[in-house]
Amino acid sequence: xxxxxxxxxxxxxxxxxxxxxxxxxxxxxxxxxxxxxxxxxxxxxxxxxxxxxxxxxxxxxxxxxxxxxxxxxxxxxxxxxxxxxxxxxxxxxxxxxxxxxxxxxxxxxxxxxxxxxxxxxxxxxxxxxxxxxxxxxxxxxxxxxxxxxxxxxxxxxxxxxxxxxxxxxxxxxxxxxxxxxxxxxxxxxxxxxxxxxxxxxxxxxxxxxxxxxxxxxxxxxxxxxxxxxxxxxxxxxxxxxxxxxxxxxxxxxxxxxxxxxxxxxxxxxxxxxxxxxxxxxxxxxxxxxxxxxxx
Amino acid sequence: xxxxxxxxxxxxxxxxxxxxxxxxxxxxxxxxxxxxxxxxxxxxxxxxxxxxxxxxxxxxxxxxxxxxxxxxxxxxxxxxxxxxxxxxxxxxxxxxxxxxxxxxxxxxxxxxxxxxxxxxxxxxxxxxxxxxxxxxxxxxxxxxxxxxxxxxxxxxxxxxxxxxxxxxxxxxxxxxxxxxxxxxxxxxxxxxxxxxxxxxxxxxxxxxxxxxxxxxxxxxxxxxxxxxxxxxxxxxxxxxxxxxxxxxxxxxxxxxxxxxxxxxxxxxxxxxxxxxxxxxxxxxxxxxxxxxxxx
Amino acid sequence: xxxxxxxxxxxxxxxxxxxxxxxxxxxxxxxxxxxxxxxxxxxxxxxxxxxxxxxxxxxxxxxxxxxxxxxxxxxxxxxxxxxxxxxxxxxxxxxxxxxxxxxxxxxxxxxxxxxxxxxxxxxxxxxxxxxxxxxxxxxxxxxxxxxxxxxxxxxxxxxxxxxxxxxxxxxxxxxxxxxxxxxxxxxxxxxxxxxxxxxxxxxxxxxxxxxxxxxxxxxxxxxxxxxxxxxxxxxxxxxxxxxxxxxxxxxxxxxxxxxxxxxxxxxxxxxxxxxxxxxxxxxxxxxxxxxxxxx
Amino acid sequence: xxxxxxxxxxxxxxxxxxxxxxxxxxxxxxxxxxxxxxxxxxxxxxxxxxxxxxxxxxxxxxxxxxxxxxxxxxxxxxxxxxxxxxxxxxxxxxxxxxxxxxxxxxxxxxxxxxxxxxxxxxxxxxxxxxxxxxxxxxxxxxxxxxxxxxxxxxxxxxxxxxxxxxxxxxxxxxxxxxxxxxxxxxxxxxxxxxxxxxxxxxxxxxxxxxxxxxxxxxxxxxxxxxxxxxxxxxxxxxxxxxxxxxxxxxxxxxxxxxxxxxxxxxxxxxxxxxxxxxxxxxxxxxxxxxxxxxx
Lengths: 295, 295, 295, 295
Fold this sequence. Notes:
The structure is a homotetramer of 295-residue chains.
Chain A (H helix, E strand, L loop, with lengths): L22 E2 L6 E2 L3 E7 L6 H14 L3 E3 L17 H14 L3 E4 L6 H7 L2 E4 L7 H8 L5 E4 L6 H12 L6 E5 L17 H8 L4 E3 L1 H5 L5 H10 L4 E5 L17 H17 L3 E2 L16
Parallel strand pairs in A: 3-4, 3-10, 3-11, 4-5, 5-6, 6-7, 7-8, 8-9, 9-10
Antiparallel strand pairs in A: 1-2
């Protein structure tokens, strides 16, 4: 039938008639997908309440409407900092209560999905776990948005199929995130596949995000990649920001300072407009008395 | 010394103090590099005078200010169409005389450099010949601009070094062109390395162009890649356009129709503005009596 | 200290003085690592008791000394055959009891590690899960050998680091398996990185295996890749064999028939000798009365 | 017709009925292709008569039957040593006269083909020039063997097509040489695609060689890659050897000493035998009075 979604992705695929998926958040105007462009920002890892709160206030003031922050970090070496775990989740919830920014954090273990989901507003599946089908199924049982990062060497088709794995479990709120793939040139940490954005927009109705920080691996080109992502049709960005990047416990080379992030956001606005879109504004900060560490 | 250009590219490298190279064309306002964004368009191959003239009139009307067209085509198979050779060069010169559009055409053999240079305003070195140092030296002896395409699997550093090969022979008018590199995903013909643009802009003072047609290998995303290229800081684009793409003798899958190119240009303008730049206008068409096949 | 193992792999790394890890199996002469070359063979997926038993008898007769067979299959699409699960584990145990061949099977979920470990003699971590650190840690708590496959786009260093993740949990019996990485040429399914073998042998004391079936993705070159692997210093191979490849439910294109596997083994022997090594013989088949589905 | 050669390579392709191409050299027993395995060795660049002569005597004694040596070197940077040119060609001819070893040397410019052909017994097309069709055509007009190296990022199909370019000009004596392709892992200089050997042997009747030196980029694994190449079916090897590698003006990291080359050759013989083949012996050294610098 001509209006059926495209095989081989019966759930994630689209035809011209399929409306875009728009993800909403209870009690706010915040959206992901559709007409708006939504910015997620925050530190690679949650290192302390203080740095998280400072970062959240800063990125909110510059126009970010969700807060990222790693609690459980997948690390190549078992001997490097792997996150503060549940303590970090608590800090994220506290800072959400302060700022009104929904939080995005990664889950790396099927057994921790319920715990992370108790705190997170959006669960992230990292590039290293895009092919971890047990984990995809487990977040598929939730009814919370999932930010799914493309694997290091995953094709676009495999990435959509990973979204399909989540969706077959009933969770239709999937955001696909391009973050660069492996290539031979060491000038950048990964090779940002900007063409994946229009290809994904043609193939699927899901929101398409970009992580310019991991794509670049160096701060000096993050703004240029952000502009390019929006010009190519991305629905949003997820950007690493740290109040004092040289002190960051992870991804120091690619984390923007608050001032750099503010400059990026100012430079981004004309491109959002050129794309015929608008920046999604952060939700109003809750009243102080509403603070509640666990949502 | 702090104002010296960066090693290991004494000629192509830049420091913060190095002004950008701006290429000019005699008797016109046309520029490549600097503040403006310059668009080159035309067919993959020159197939006949009629199709070339029709294409040139069309792309000029939409805002292209130089005409591309292949006369000598490097082809993977020795059994496919390899261009009309000198006849094509003559047609390019005739159409230049009609439209005022300077012509860009590829040279693939050291022994043909003088012949091609007699007709071309800009000589193109194709991706397959980026490491052909004999050819780089030979075009280095000219005093005409060279559009140097990045090789299939060349690093950014190697690409700048290829420009350096040309410049050591005295020709300082080199345009570096990103056109996608080889990768594992067959969704696009090549993988457009949009991050190469800001990296190149940091490393060199030379103009940086993008060929979104070869990067994409499919027409439906050429406009999105063009927008992304400008947003990332490119100084111009070189785009394949054919009056009847299905009939094209080469690159039919990636050639835009004149209407598609016109739509692309209309969509591009807001991004050029967002980048704080302007589109370089085509030179006025010469008076009819000035037609002269060889410049 | 000169005899300490190499950083940054304190457990997996080696110096010239470190002896190679040799994995043994209770009550048999079977070894993995050291002087011998050990062959694992069997179907991609366990499809039935009959086909598994037929395959096991066949590969044992040709010189394989362990049996592979997938019970839980990670599949790119959620709509394709994903294995028979625990039923397949039961069949593997039954066939082990018949043939004396220890069984190698993949685990893809932390929550299934204990179940799989109850049946398997060697647990496989597939390429898709090489960066799944939760799973690596979980198999690290076992005291059973783990066959760790290199990720699609993992560097050699990252692969050794994944082994280190397992070993930090106390399980020192890790076999590293090269199986090809992603590249741009579609002539083979993956690009077999034969150079990884001598590099791994220099960097680590762990046994190094090769999966020529997944590297090739086509049967006609599996034997050539097997010979090359042994010549480059591999300690063993894991090869897909199916009694009737065209009927295979997965990996039909790369599964050898029993006759093809027998021919491969006959062709391999001279290369094992040329390498100054010997083929590890299968353990004797147990007496019929010893059959016990769960070891 | 069932006996016709395979399309799309009418000249380079093969069917099961096509006999392998065997290249012979006048007045000697020397062959390339067919049953024997032929070893080419020598320095990356010819640096002086003395070092070339010393290398030639050494590699001949160890079993090499042709001498390699660069006279014109394609170099990424225009500021590095680019060979001694015609002087190096003269030295090659002198050493050939002394040792009886035919010489293999690279040509990088169409205008130098006749000059290089006057001295060389085999002309090499380097990886950087595999897509330089003007150069391919020019060596196609010769009636001397051409060693054609696979490009950095050329597919196997494109490599055979480059051979076809040469053969359409009438020169049927083409040797295809795998030398590693670009990949993301920096553990080796290039990624040696050992699977290309059996694929090439299936697709074409031309001899297939391997350059393990450029593939590895490090001396410690050249012998392992050489053994693997022969086990996979290669017809020969081309290996970089220098009498004092640390002093080499180019490729110092990957050049074997004479002692290392001798050890490699001793280790290689059992693999040549295991492959059911024999090492092609060097031609006898000519009588001293025959010395003549230009053949």
